[in-house]
């Protein structure tokens, strides 16, 4: 199968790293393509950034489908453009939130998300409510590191571990979900760190979860429902 | 005060009618300005249309604030771009959903929204959940008339009355909210029609409700919270 | 329009202050009348006080409507007698809770109410549940000052600021609602105080919000639904 | 123990029947006293009636406690004055709703309440929400018979059976709660009637449930919490 | 009436104490029988223990009914086997959770459960959600004492009082429910201890509550609904 | 990886078919083992059957882990023994409900489950509440065919299609989940049938979903949290 990753940012700063990371998660038979968007922002850290990225994401998803993609991962934890994209293509599309959080629900009683900045908390809490998952997902925490500084190595793992420990201690979380798809390659290290200090607490990487999710949907032969995602009616549009 | 209406469509088909309608709702001292957007779609009837209109709406809201607007009404029931707009300006901004539905909650036990097409139902149900109002807002109904055909006069009132009667009979609704800001000038006629046939059921016009809401916010001296709507961080953006 | 304020207390201690305060909120064309009740208590700070005030409130609302009022504000945050009053008159009636809390919902993600005494917490939490708003309204806080001591000037603002800061810091609140209609004339000062110390957090005055709400309902041409508020059947009554 | 029934109506039309009925439910050692109220209405079928009855109910409960009652049953399904009464006396007090509905929750998955008139539906649905039981209690149904006509014998059982059958068939109910304390002496007949026609569906009589509840509370040595029901502060009151 | 207590453990360590305790709670006319199970575990402190005890509990309940029991109390707070038991017998069956927690709901706004070990928290939180009582039951607390060490006398009351005080102070609880049926004979002491230090907070003993509940169900003439608890279909079974 | 399927029934009637079906779903590198249980029932169609199967399921899961399984699928839609099993082994364990329903949540707004018999409805509705998914999962429907008659070929697809169509028409469902792991090999046919008659509605097979889920968990390097699933304490147990 052919899996397209839509990077909803206007620079190539993450392209290679994402390609490598996704390449490491996919099954042998899966071909990976990474597309960044032409219009939008350098990173998504607000409702404003997300709205600006919308048309570019939809362009990229539409082109990916036209080019034969079997599934699309919009690589951002806020699921930007994902509902809209499902209206216009006939293949599975997910962002970072749904696969990671739904995966976490079968791993423990309460899910604790740790994201980048306070700016995105209302957006993410809004997703929790929109997806009707308030009964299982606790208050969301932040490491207070901007997306463009996430290549912080140990400092990021330290900050995540501090928040994860606090969430577990406060009984807010039994499972940790990394709340930004830019937190690449740290889930295993964080999981190990936590297990070294206390009971085992699984850590879900949103990129890995999204890849598993899309491969699973393709293998199961399912794609989004057309009674939820109706095709947009023809009309004048200026993009 | 100066109130700007952002019409999130790319044509001037509605501009004059909206200006007239809004002009009829405002208080004596309120000056009205109507701006349509430069990029987007001819009408908003899907998540896709809404996403395409996002950057244009934010441009228009930002310009309105720069031009001295005291409050902005994004004239679409799906509240497109409203959360993002609150991040970038220091004045009240509302769409059609919040003022109309919140107003309805003090008028009866259950609110019944009637909108245009099935395409927007998941988007509107998503707003009900996002705003955590599922305990009071019933299933949303449609007249199955596209936005661009809403100048249907009696046919529209007939279709609305049929759905409103059904919703009341099924105990889904005690108050009716018109679920599209394009349903201009029919709320009073519908309310009268329903009252002629049975017990009084109030009908809330989303344009009227939004105008009252914004004038009220300005008079109360309040505007959106900066702990929910943090200003976007500076970064590269291509719109 | 003619707006009647029903003061649900048996003394005239608040009458002049309320008349002045409401007079400052209304639109130019609105005539204000203040009526206190004949039977009830000196202040409402318990379910017991609220129940004792019930018949007096209903008398006053009925008389106001008979005397040509266009809308009635029952000036108490617990909304005493409000549902019952809607059954017996054909004009908009609100208390303090509904307009203030519903207004707050469009200003931020979470609403924090600050009221007078712990005695009224179960009553107010009961309203939050009755109105199905638990998803947006946090735990309610108190300043621990009785209603009759609220003319405390700076001490009241100090106590409110302390609770508001704590609620914001604990991420319980993005918007503050003053939870007693006796907290007159302090909303603006509190909002300013908070803004001087941190991000802007709106403060909603329940009296101001109620006035806006009633004027809006009259201008929108709506009043409570007769499928929720059915007229009481004729029968023997001894008041 | 001494159990006082407060009949929240101003006539003696029900007094003897209630005394007989309650007498049949109590344990050997329980002494029953029935008090009607001096101020209020002939029956409670609206929020208005309930508010008018409030002071009279509180007078009666206070007097009962002063006269040595060990527990008080306010014989009305809407629980009028019950929360307020718990603030002023140190003994268990219940109305009709809480004991019957809570009892029903251990008898089946969903509870179906059948009450008298549509007028009381918003009040009862309001209680379901106030007590946070919406997840288990279905839509409430009516027989459309006023309280004062409930001595309808077979006609009442017929009407109840019709609504109960419909509720069960629609999967709204697995347990039936009679939603008016004036529906005396029909629960067993209704339960038998339903069992003769289909699977066994329990029918909970609110008077019987309240008596069991109060005797149980006394035997368990518990009474309402003083952190929920704080004693009203001293102040001027005119009743 | 004849009331059977099923002790879901494989030793007789508790039999005499439970017989004495239950004997002290029942009405004069009630005959008590205590049966322990033949297969299972020495105490129930995990989902694993609960699952192992299932067949033994069902054997015991079935035998009790065959021997003429009028009601059965499965003496464990996790309600193990209770739903299944209702499918196979025609008499009331309860565990410890339902009667105690439902009783508590009419005593105060929020219920605080205090149980033995963290191991059972997810199971008990799962019951709160399964019974749809999340709106009233706070976070559950533990004394961190295993069931087999509960005969700790003062140490148990000390530990319970510490947790109860903390729950009340944090506004998590207005009523305390002892969350293990092995906490025998301490409810009254705990209630007294709390009342000596602050406002009255009722403490509900699950054994006492269950006995009252079952006697009440028998006197009310009700038993579990056959539309919720359908009789298992005949088939091969190896126990 | 080695994946063990625990068939929670006491006959080999399904063993070969399940082995074949699971074999068709797994990835090339996955080795499949099917174990049936020694004690339990011929099929699971009630809480009673589920409870009887508990110890046998736990035996089988424990043995599978001891024999080197990397993940276990308890092949029953009611998730019997799954929570308990997670307490005793250090590998991923799922039943049929969690993977299928969680998968469905990213495919459409509302999930409609169709199961075998009315007997299991309270158990499945109980799971929906326990997992806190009531906001997305509609009322569950039945085909009214016992598990042992599910090899009905076309008759089963006909019955499923009838219920699926009704659920979609009533706006209860946008995605269909087959609510019994014995409904083998019909998901694709049902999905095709529905798509031939109306808009595309995905159909999720619980066996397929479970296999994808377990392979994904293993590849992600996660397993159940030890703060939710604590290891049972040592004690006497008689199985």
UniProtKB/TrEMBL annotation, chains A, B, C, D, E, F:
Pfam families, per the entry: Asp_Glu_race (PF01177)
Coiled coil: none
InterPro entries for this protein: Asp/Glu/hydantoin_racemase, Hydantoin_racemase-like, Iso_Racemase_Enz_sf
Family: Belongs to the HyuE racemase family.
Annotated protein name in UniProt: Aspartate/glutamate racemase family protein
Lineage: Bacteria, Bacillati, Actinomycetota, Actinomycetes, Kitasatosporales
